[in-house]
Amino acid sequence: MRVTLDHLRRYAVARSLFKPTTLGKAIGKLGFVQADPIRAPARAQDLTLRHRVVDYAAGDLERRYPKLPIEEDFFVNYGFLPRAHQGLMHPRVPRTAWSAARKRKAQTVLEFIREQGPVHPRIVDAHFAHGKITNWFGGSSNATTHLLDDMHYRGMLRIARRESGTRIYAVREPVEALPDAATASARFDALVNAVMHKYAPLPAASLGQLLSLLCVGAPQWRTERAAALARAKQRFTRVRLDGIDWYWPAGESPRSARWRLDDEVRLLTPFDPVVWDRRRFTIFWDWTYRFEAYTPAPKRKLGYYALPVLWRDRVVGWGNLSVVEGKLQSTFGYADHDAPRDPAFHAGLEAELARMNLFLGLG
Length: 363
Prior knowledge:
Layout: H1 5-16, H2 23-30, E1 33-34, H3 44-49, H4 60-64, E2 70-74, E3 78-82, H5 83-87, H6 100-116, H7 121-128, E4 132-134, E5 140-142, H8 143-153, E6 157-163, E7 166-171, H9 181-199, E8 202-203, H10 204-217, H11 225-235, E9 237-241, E10 244-248, E11 265-267, H12 278-285, E12 307-311, E13 314-324, E14 327-334, H13 343-359
Antiparallel strand pairs: 1-3, 2-3, 4-5, 6-7, 8-10, 9-10, 11-12, 12-13, 13-14
Helix pairs in contact: 7-8, 9-10, 9-11
């Protein structure tokens, strides 16, 4: 029978907001959790996991990271992912080659970290005094931090843990040489499957966009993007609605009764997989959501870090939350100008704010 947009919207919400489980299993089910340093009122990775992990509290990922089979690395963006997924992207071959001088500097730093064990960037900087550079924001950054980030991206280092949000670097043992063409294609397809598993269902344009972003995590295969996209379109299920091709994993049906919705109201991070794809967001909910943290304050329409407000299978508005003198402060706006009149929504919003207080440790 015909799949409708209502089916796709319910499917997208229900499959992503699975029954809360353990932290390790939740990351495995998601396949990737995007990270962001802004706390408003908590980091994006924590705001994503709070809906999917039993009794999750802000900071649990950072506290438990060293004992979990996960890594911080680049995927379609920067974040946390199972080691099995990370291994598919390495050895990573960056698009820009290092100069001989930078190679020598990196090798010296690598030997220092091998001798010292996991180190804070401040210790490396104190030892080498690499000075300052201009970052991509136009500001000033430690050259040591930039070099460590670059070494991490190239697979020379890994993140052993964090201390108060700061990455602690350790040596990452080198992996085998680049695979042959057939193995490379199989690995790329496996990564594409991980992308689809997290973000399905996807409009064709969004699938193409995610494959382009995946070529940041695996730049050595960027010339294979077109072939990988063609293979993906063959193995995923497709339906055309209102001139748009939609794709999702084979074997799943958006019409299935298994995709049940509850009556809860949820405050989502801007990077939650339910709302990450702004193209899909507009199609599903018929309004434009913007992430405005880097927009000058006078030009903001929603707020510094507006959290989409999801109720059932509808994103009905947004909320801006902050902690002031130990108390949670919140303001809300709505796509239809007014909040839904249904008493179930207001009860759900109160319950969500109570859960947010517990998550933040505010009582």
